[in-house]
């Protein structure tokens, strides 16, 4: 079993020497020191390669080193000297590897050869690309189109994504679940209803004009560290930053830029949050309801005193819809209920509202702490309501800023990766490629899981990612996976999804983005879209990990050629030989955003897509920005009334990228040596009569006939609100019932899972 965890509260700033030490450690451990010069020269630089870690914006005027500790880690792990080749697979059976940790699996390094699962020996064996595609193609031809799922994780380029969605549609379905179904799908559902666009409105340059930042449920120091540069600059103008997070995440507290010699030498950090509030998990609707209520009270007062109004009445009148109903709901909600649900006092919420009211232009930043709840959509829409009250959308320095996950997850949606037929220009595709695209909605991630559990799926193609490990309901999903006829995983490293096999299983190894990709027409570039809707080119600079790798566009093209009837309008092989041709296709199908695409590849800072809400054009049902009424004050499945039921947030540590675990150091939270921990408020622990540091079993607090538990979690007394627990993802995924997802978006509700603690 795993080691015991240690906990020493971390009082150092984010960034600073701690991040430099971690960088040195990981570059050495992955034997990737030789990649350092390119990291400084090319990483996130125009003409270089775009980081494969988070999706945060890449500035037009980059810092000398435009990478963070975690981006560097991702790169060292991509460019590691370790290899997982046929000899490795010859030494280990799949049953044995199923006992390995996520860390141990990926730490073996890069996959080098295409591999096929051999049931007789229970091992993966080398297979030629030709044989692999022939068998996969023949199997795909034998299934009904609805029984195949084309999953995609958010790292692959716009070119790969475009080809992949066309493959699915030519095959005959819209079964294109994407990692974003587990992530910001809530954003993609909530924002169009409110402001008529599925993405954020904030551009990097807006930070220079903002007068206040509100942050909800995002862990900047770990998950988008380069955003700290903008936050630091904002703080140097003395702009307030108001943070709501059940945990005091170090990144929101204090930062030293490793780029600044003076700050490094004097060890003098920038304070980030000026006000930090710790609501209960799932308490944000109530938090924002309280702030809105306070704003109405301030506005009443300003009216009485004949001062400037607190509400932007002109904006509300000209640009919004539904204000009166919203006002009625807010005024009618009782302060006591609000404080109870939020886990914060009325005074605290009035104080936060006052800071907001005093600022002219406000940016609201958020992450998984808002999206991954039953009422995640209401969370996001409530944040929009708050912005609309003071006209904080569609002006410089103001707007909504969802911090996206994978480096191209937003872009994949932009070029047609969606299970929702209405969101995709199918008519344009039908005309250009002369076929009849499927018009029925496909399966999203949760629905794909449901259909796999129902035995309705024959084939699963995973273009990147670690689906089995990332989804909820681990035990049932792993068991059901074995009923698939075909499981194909396009991957860079070995992970658990490769080991939970179907009847026929393949691992198809591919290049990583920083690697040189040479095709028939010469070296290729690929493109991605960042969190702020800017499109960047990425040029590989490193030698590929193995000569047997195929690029993702090649793999998609070969799959298509093996599985589909030839179509003269879709020259797969030419496209895979020259990605500029794919960009021409993207420009033809999505002319608005991608006109003249191939000539705009190396714009410093990327070129932004045109987002109507940025210009106060509202493409909603009413033609206005809509105030949307929240359905309840609690965002979670369980209102937390039963004293033994606690709400579990499943989180990332500072030493992981999703299911890729880099190590056991959650440095910024002071937790080391093990990930099998549970952060708990000492009062809860004592109330439940459990000893300090005890190991416990955590069980899902639901009564649906399915037992779900995770054993051997070590309790750590932590600064966390009563009633809220925190543990790590993916270890705790076994506790999340598949049916606990966000209303409307179906994003698994991974942030307020009702659980009970039992003695281990
Ligand atoms: N280094 C690194 N970078 C990453 C990733 C990674 O794993 N590692 N993952 C990438 C991906 S795919 C994504 S989606 C993003 C995820 O980045 P984040 O959105 O930061 O996601 P989480 O790590 O899940 O952390 C969510 C934060 O929300 C807080 N929170 C939880 N519940 C609530 C709540 O009810 N209310 C409030 N107000 N706060 C809450 C948690 O304490 C935590 O600080 O990061 C991306 N970037
Ligand atoms: N409980 C809980 N569950 C969650 C979350 C949570 O907060 N809590 N977060 C959810 C979120 S936000 C997300 S986005 C999902 C993540 O779900 P996924 O995107 O499916 O998972 P990752 O861990 O990002 O995938 C890692 C694997 O991708 C492969 N890979 C890496 N780079 C490349 C590449 O360039 N090409 C290809 N083809 N493969 C590559 C490697 O083999 C690696 O093992 O998990 C979700 N699950
Ligand atoms: Mo994500």
Automatic annotation (TrEMBL):
Cofactor requirements of the protein: Mo-bis(molybdopterin guanine dinucleotide); [4Fe-4S] cluster
Molecular function GO labels: 4 iron, 4 sulfur cluster binding; formate dehydrogenase (NAD+) activity; molybdenum ion binding
Entries under InterPro entries matching the protein: Asp_de-COase-like_dom_sf (IPR009010), MopB_CT_YdeP (IPR037951), Mopterin_OxRdtase (IPR006656), Mopterin_OxRdtse_a_bac (IPR010046), Prok_molybdopt-oxidoreductase (IPR050123), YdeP_MopB (IPR041953)
Domain of life the protein comes from: Bacteria
Record's keyword annotation contains Oxidoreductase: yes
TM region positions: none
Entries under CDD domains matching the protein: MopB_CT_ydeP, MopB_ydeP
Domain Molybdopterin oxidoreductase residue range list: 110-411
CC per GO annotation: membrane
Keyword list, A-Z: 4Fe-4S, Iron, Iron-sulfur, Metal-binding, Molybdenum, Oxidoreductase
Family matches, as PANTHER family: PROTEIN YDEP, RESPIRATORY NITRATE REDUCTASE
Protein family per UniProt: Belongs to the prokaryotic molybdopterin-containing oxidoreductase family.
Protein name, per record: FdhF/YdeP family oxidoreductase
